[in-house]
Model the fold of this input.
Amino acid sequence: MTMSWKKVVPACLLIVLLLIPTAAFAVDFNISNVVIEVHLKENGDADVVEKHTYVFDSKFNGVTREIIAKQGTAITEFVAYENNKRLKVEHEKGTYKIFRSGKKETIEVEMRYGIVNAMEKYEDGAQFYWPFFDKRNETDYGNMTIMVHPPAAAHDVLYLGYDSAYEKGHLRSNGIVEFRLGNVSAGENGDIRVVYETELFPSIVEQNGAIRDEVKAEKSILAEELKQFVASQEKTNKFGLFGVPIGGIFLFILFGSMYKKRRDYKLLVLDDLKNRKSLVPKEKLSMPATIYYANSGTLTPGATAAALLDLVRQGFVKQLSDTQFELIHRDVQHAHEAALIELLFDEVGDGQSFDVADLETYTKNKKNHSIYSKLLSAWRTGVIGEVKQHTFIEKTPGVRWLLVGLSAIFVVGAILFGRYELFFLMAIAAFFAFISLLMAIFYRLRNLEGHLLFEEWKQFRQAFDKLDLDEWNLLETDDKFRAYAFSVGTGDKRVMKQFNEFRAAEQRTAYSNESFHYYDSVFMSNSFASANKNANVDAGGSSTSSSSGGGTGGGGGGSGAF
Done:
C-alpha cells in the first residue's frame, strides 16, 4: 500500500483552509453581551434599543448591524451611540456600518431605531412577531437577552420563542416578556412572538381571525417535536456509541490487513534480493518511466534532463559539448521519447541539433508557451502511460469500493449525529469518513513485480553510497549511464555526490570518453526548471454565493465588524 504524501498533504491543507471561516482573516473580535429592549407603542410601531458589547483583539474601524425588516414593516431613524456620544452611520441594503475605530479594546455600542407596523392586531389579541437575527448572521452572540415592553400594563400575555429562543421566555411584572437566549451561535434562527390584549393598541386596524389559538397550537406542536427529538436523540446516541466504535474497529482491521499484505509482499521481495549481486537493476522500463515509478510518481525538471541523457545512452542523440546535442536517428521505442525529440530538436532546435542555451530564449517567447506545454505534457503522459502498461499495481476494486461504502456510511452517520446535536459523535464519524475516503482514493498496493522494481532501485541508492571506485569500474558502461540517469532524475544528492567523485576519478585517468562525463546534471536540470517556469500559465477563477433569510416574514439580520 502506498500513498503519495505529496498529493495527500496539499489535499488535506485545502480541506482545512476551506473549513476556516473567512472572518478569521479579518477583524478579530467577539460579541460578549447583547441586550435588546423593544418598547411597543399604541399605534403599532416600536422603539428598539440594542446594546452590543464588542471585545476586539485587533485593530478595527467599526461595527455592523444588519436588520432586514419583515414584509409590511420598515426600519426608521437608525442611530448609534457610545457613552451618549453619537457615532457616524452609513446604511446600504439593510446593513448599517457604525464607524468607531480602535485597537484591542472593549466597547459598548448602543443602537436605536424604530419599527413601523411592528404589531399585527387580530380579534383576540395583538402580536409582536420578529426576528432580530437569522441564519444570515455570521457572528456568535455571547449572552443575548431580548425584552418586550407593552405600551401599558398587560395581564393576558402569551409568548413563544422559536429555534434558539425556544423555551427561553419568562413573564415579568406588568406584562414584560424577557427572552434569555444566552449564547447564540452564528447561522441560527431565533424568532420571538408575544401576544397582548387588543385594548392596548387602539390605533391599529384589526384583521379578521384569531391569533391565540394558533400560538397555543404551535406551542403544543413544538413541545411534541421536542419530545420526539429528545427520544430520537437518545436512540441515535445509543446507536452511535455502539456503531461508531464498531465501524472504527472494522476500519482499523481493514487498514491492518492492507498493511500486512503490503509487508508480506515486501518481505518476499527482500528475501529474493538477498541473493542478487548486481548493483544496477536490470532494465525493465525506460529510465524516465523507472524514475517516475521509483520516485513516488513525480516527474521533476531533473527527470526531463535524465530523459535527454537516456536518449544519449541509447544512441538516438549524441552530445557534442556541454550544451549542444545532435539527433542521430528517430527510431525510438516509446512515445514519450518521440515527444521529447519533437520538443527539443524540432521545436527548440533546428530539427537536427539542439542547444540548451536556446531553451530559455524559446520559452521566454509567450507565443511558444502553448506548444511547449503541449509537448511537455505529451512527454509526461507518455512516461506515465508506459508505467501503466505494466502490471505493477494489484487490482483491488473490492477493497476500494468497500472503503467508499464505509465512508458513505460514516457520512450518513455524521449527518444524523449533527441533526440530533450529538457533535462529539459527529466529529468522530466525519473523521472516519475522511480517512476512509482518503484510503479509497490513494490506496495503491504494489504486486510482487512492482515491489521488486521499487526495492531494487531503493537498494541501489543505499548500496551506491557505500560503493568504492574499484567496484564502480567493474560496471558496464550502459549500467553507469542508467545509474547516472536515475540519480539525475530523482535528484538524490547523496548518490550524485558519490557519482561525481567517480566521474572525477575517471576523468583523471584520461582513458574514458563517456558522454555523461561532461553532462552537467545541475545545469541541465536548472535549464529545464527555468524553461518550465517561463512557460507556466497562471489560472484563476471566482465563485459567488448567496443566501436567503430564515426569519419570520423574510426578516432577520446579524452583526459584525470591519
